[in-house]
Specification:
By secondary structure, the chain is an alpha+beta fold. It has two domains: 143 residues, Ribosomal Protein S5, domain 2 (2-Layer Sandwich), CATH 3.30.230; 124 residues, Alpha-Beta Plaits, CATH 3.30.70.890. It is 28% helix and 29% strand. It has eight helices and eleven strands. Strands 1, 2, 3, 4, 5, 6 and 7 form a seven-stranded mixed sheet that branches. Strands 9-10-8-11 form a four-stranded antiparallel sheet, with helices on both faces. A hairpin with a 3-residue loop joins strand 6 and strand 7. The protein is globular and about 55 Å long.
Amino acid sequence: MTTAASEAFAPAKVNLTLHVTGQRADGYHLLDSLVMFADVGDRVTVARAERMSLTVTGPMAAGVPEDARNLCWRAAQAFGAPVAITLDKHLPAAAGIGGGSSDAAAVLRAMERLFGRPSGVDPLTLGADVPVCMLARAARMGGIGEAVTPLTMPPLRAILVNPRVEVATPSVFKALARRDNAPMAPLPDTGAQAGQVLDWLAQQRNDLEPPAAALRPEIGQVLGALSSLKGARLVRMSGSGATCFALFEPDTPTEAMARDLQAAIPQWWVAATVLS
């Protein structure tokens, strides 16, 4: 019996750390990053079809291309079978939380189920974040994105905020002061509690945060608002921005705080989540 359609969740990817440790001769930057995934995200559905198509729905659909400019389309093309893709878009675009990469990875996972075979696609050819998004769980990400090591991490309670401004990743890297920064310190032992992980995270960095904040002052406003939340243990930007996060102890009532923040600044995108 063949399956007519297959669905997959595309969770937001959060770079809790992002150390830029070098640059290759071909221009690609070397990274050392701890990545976890949220329980908020997009959803993709793929169905067998005679020709490729992509329909984007959802609250963040405006402006999302429905053709080969979209990584979902390119992922399906790389798989090598025509499908009708529906992308239910809930994550803001160009936001530093891997929305497009996670969508592409979800298309590949859904197509693998639909056609009953491995994709055969090198995810790195679709983008540096796609390999870790194929895993879609806590991992250390290295090299230019191809080195993905799964990690066992305690769930972390977080609030994500995006000021609804797009940040161009190339511009952020161009503004980076230095490209040969130190890698992450040795990771916490397997079995570490949330508090121990939060202590360790506070000693790490996102090297792209200063240049991104200089390009987009809204990032500083978001960081300030998150820092003012009661019980916020760590506040930092994710990826190349502009999404920022605050991390909390496991029993913190983050849903109520997120609702209050959304009500106070309705133009921002705000989500309470658990990272895993």
